[in-house]
Amino acid sequence: MDYEELTGQRVIEPELTTRALILSDSSIRANERQLATPALPADKAPAGTALRRILDRGYITVAVRQDLPGFAFPDPQTGELCGLEIDLARAVAFRIFADCDRVKLVPVKTAERIAKLRPKLGFIDYILEQYSILSTLIMTNWWYQGMAGNLDEFLCPAECAGKLDFVGLDYYWGISSIHPERVLHLMQAAYRHFDQAPVLPEALGGILQNLKTMFGNMPIIIFENGSVDVADGIDRATYLCEHIKQIQKAVTRGINVQGYVCWSITSNREWDCIFGKGSDFGLFHIDLDYDPSLRRQRTASADAYQQIIQNRTA
Predict the structure, then answer these.
(1) Is residue 303, in this structure, part of any structural domain at all?
(2) Is 93 exposed, middle or buried (0-12, 13-18, 19+ CB in 10 A)?
(3) In 3-state terms, what secondary structure has residue 257?
(4) How far apart are CA 46 and CA 255, in angstroms?
(5) Which of 116, 130, 139, 263 could form a Cys-Cys staple with 224, CB 3.0–4.6 A?
């Protein structure tokens, strides 16, 4: 029995839009904007920098795939590479030279991409890896920026903006400053050492306020929030209580939070982590490695969460 038979309601199929069409449309809009986008002044690139070398060379070199439709693939009619990766490369070239054609595209296989970027001095890889992780963590709101219409169209087509029915949020860890010790804890979270991850309930309140600023009174649903047994010296029951308090404060400030989901009800295997207290987010513990019956064992955090639900307050 399908949905219509079960409910008596007719299912209206959404209009179909191919990914390739969206991406090609975005490149057209990017080209239309180029006339209004100033190039980067040459005097902004100090001697000895990578940007200075690029300016002196007269073009940028970009490694791209050539076998992924929508991202980088030969145009069936012209044979020239096209797609989102090509659009990005041309946009960068225009930003530097005011000429989107001053780019050299180097086709590479997916497995070769990292090797092409790897410096001759191996220890630099570690430094770049830390920078890459940290910069990614800092820019985790890029998706919301796109849905709010704050990104260039070649990154997020304009038709995507304002189309949300609600705003979804996952929140686990945070830091209040870039103090090296706290940053290291945040890096540990990225490496999935969750028992060393930094706990900051107040950051959840700040994120909810930012989402209200971006999306107004649109409903917000927190789909994931939770902790391992103990993280940053804070047990799971305390973690849940303090984060739910932040949600309650947000509601009193007029933020339209409509739902909250604790991650997770039972033990689960987190990505590629070795199962143990440092990777177990479950309110009910299950010995996934050695208990064939998978018996659920209630934890103190389950008691705390039940109490919050019954009292309807943390």
Answers:
(1) yes
(2) buried
(3) strand
(4) 46
(5) 263
- 280 found inside a domain: yes
Residue that finishes a domain, picked among 84, 117, 150: 117
Four-point Cα dihedral 99, 100, 102, 103, nearest 10: 160
Task: Return the pLDDT at 215.
Answer: 95
Residue 137 pLDDT > 70: no
**Pick the residue with more confidence: 305 or 77?**
305
Q: How far apart (Å, rounded) are the C-alpha atoms in residues 95 and 150? A: 18
* CA atoms of 212 and 102, how far apart (whole Å): 41
Residue 197 included in any domain = yes
- What is the predicted pLDDT for the residue at 22? 35
pLDDT at position 17 = 38
Pairwise CA distance, residues 103 & 95, whole Å = 11
- Residue 137 identity (one-letter amino acid): L
Q: List, for residues 214-223, the tens digit of each pLDDT value.
A: 999 999 999 9
Given a cut of 50, is residue 232 above it in pLDDT? yes
According to DSSP, residue 121 is labeled S
Q: How far apart are the C-alpha atoms of 23 and 279, rounded to whole Å?
A: 38
User: Whole-angstrom Cα distance, residue 195 to residue 188?
Assistant: 9
- 240 CB burial (10 A radius; 0-12, 13-18, 19+): buried
Instruction: Show the domain range for 305.
Output: 164-311
Tokens of 260: 């909250």
Question: Which of 214, 223, 309, 208 is closest to 256 using CA atoms?
Answer: 208
Longest dimension (CA), the chain: 70
